[in-house]
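Reopening this one. Same input as before:
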Amino acid sequence: MSIPSSSSPVLSPDSSSHDAVLSAPAASPADSENLSPDELELLAKLEEQNRLLEADSKSMRSMSGSRRNSGSSLVSSSSASSNLSHLEEDTWILWGRIVNEWEEWRRKKDKLLKELIRKGIPHHFRAIVWQLLGNATDMPVKNQYSELLKMSSPCEKLIRRDIARTYPEHEFFKGQDSLGQEVLFNVMKAYSLVDREVGYCQGSAFIVGLLLMQMPEEEAFCVFVRLMQEYRLRELFKPSMAELGLCIYQFEYLLQEQLPELNVHFRSQSFHTSMYASSWFLTLFLTFLPLPVATRIFDIFMYEGLEIIFRVGLAILQYNQTDLIQLDMEGMSQHFQKVIPHQFDSCPDKLILRAYQVKYNPKRMKKLEKEYTTIKNKEMEEQIEIKRLRTENRLLKQRIETLEKVRYGLGFQPGQVTRAQEAEENYVIKRELAVVRQQCNTASESLEKAQDTIRELQQQKYTEQFVSNLQTQLEQSRLREAELLGALKEMQDKVLDLEKRSSCLPDENNVVALQEEVKQMKLRELETLRSFREMQETVTELNQRWQVTGGGGGHWKESPKKNAMNELQDKLMTVRLREAQAQAELREVKLKALQLESQNQINSKLIGRNDQERSALQDRLQMLANQNKALQAQLNEMKRKQAESDCKSKEEVMAVRLREADSMAAMAELRQRIAELEIQKEEGLIQGQLNHSDSRQYISQLRDQITELKNEVGHTHRHRHTRTHTLSDITAQSLEWTLKPCNNQGCGIVELFSSLTASGKKLFFILVVLHQMLRSLLPEGRGQNSPCAGWVGSRMMLEDFCAKLTEPHVIHVAAVVTTRLFSQFKSSATSAVRDLH
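Same output, byte for byte:
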């Protein structure tokens, strides 16, 4: 891969970027096997230069106090600078090779690449390496950037307001109309249009500012979009900031587990984790630590994610634990603001080393994430229940207030609720029954229409079908996940089957070569066997000749010379025979050696073939492992999307419940309002009917009632006349005397009816109250001059009078009193009608 020209750096965030690469990482044995000879040589040079630098720095420190050795100090410093230049050259070569061979390094030399990134990325390579780490080199959103800048965003005012507070001391962002502020505004505006749910958050401007220090605005925009999508930053910057709460929860657990004393001190001082750690996660230490140190942390963040934020945060707290325990809340705040940020200015490697000494368990963090999600869901349900109860409580209070108003209104009606008012209300209700029924029907129809409208709205938006659709989508997503898992398992089975088949299949090229070698070996074996047989035939022939010669030696009876010659010939023949046998044995040994050599060659070929197959299988295994990683990554992505869809569905269900509770509350309020309006309407109708009734109809009604009462009294009087004649005379005389207007009102009746029982007293009291009511119905000024005005005394007199009544007299007394009262009322009513006419 070649380095694109557009990825050249814009500005350097630190003045000593070469310090980040002064120490070359030690390659592990597994990684050294994958390195080429040139790379191994380059690493050896880097280590040698490091050793020279360490020796020179030690000599400089030891000789800085001596004037005699000033010359040697200068020599060592010059050698250190030359070594540094060579080291920078070697670092450039190494990182250039890494960038050009990026895919191979990520696949085969991942551990070595991780160690190099932890040591620090050179400044001039940060732009392209960050893009490669974030996989942001070729993104479709890059082509939309120019079009996004032409659009308007609702967050433009907020972005303009916060730009001046982003790196105010940095040269690139100084000034209101500086280039840095302009490109920062463009990137933040473009992203607020791409992701309208997140929009703009102040902490994200610092991350974009750091990217703009390294690369042009289009590349910075692509990297920022990738960070938001793939590095959990989008969840951090959402309006709800749910991911920030999760990070704080996980960090508190790590603090409690690894630094329990400091955690107890923080709790005792009410120094919450969010007071100092929120900015760490939102800005990735860019607002807390100096820019060179924060840039080193950002290098590792691009490769390892939020894990480095947890590690660095705990490392900082471990380093300052002794000082923080001795401070109060205000002192700890000052310590975090002024002391801690400058502790690692000169040695960021020290902070990185401490960070990787912190214990961090990814599996435990996943469990904490699940626990936090469960807690938040319970809190959401409790909030919904609390809101519903508050709504019901508010409605009940309104109902109580309405009932109190109605009670007070009924309690202060003039004249109280008496029989006359009931009779009058019944009469008015009978007269206006048709109108009231029509109005009631109209109101009922309106209420039914309103209820139907509310039901339609509920059915359109918040029905159970909507929730069932969400559940169906959830089940479908789970089925898709199960299908993907099944497909993955099938693919793995197929891969294993193919591997078995490939191991069983022979290599055609190797088979042909082996066949040719076998043919040659067979030919050589045949030649050897043929020569061996010839040798055996020669030996056999010599044996036969020797035997013939030895067998005929006894027939020679010649001179001693011939005998000596024959002995020599025999010895010569024996020697030749032994020689032939030795040659035969030698050839047999050579044949065995040749066979062993052939077998050795075959075995070596088989070993070579096995090595080739093993290397091929290793490559295949590596490829399958990569495929497995890719499939696992896809599976994790599907799980993450599944979890997001689950969370979204739960949020939608919760929102539906909240809206349903609000709608129910609104319905209850509308019903309450309708009831109040109906009550007010009825009260207004009744009051208007009471105040505006016709006087003539009213008088005629009273006359009818008087006539009916007279008839009833006459009937009762005739029925009991025989039994109560004497009592009637006495009672009539007493009433005549009592009804006269005098100062001693009610005395005769008290003496006459002193023996009445409780029921008689009550009946007589009712008659007196009826008389009082009839007096109140007369026109103003008539009641005082009526004949019956004098006998109605004070309330205490009536109570004393009623207490002395007895049962035998009550019926006749009631009849007589009623007759007298109505006769007097009739005369008063006649005079009142005459006056009206």
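So the earlier flakiness isn't reproducible anymore. For the record, Residues 723 and 812 are 10 Å apart (CA to CA).
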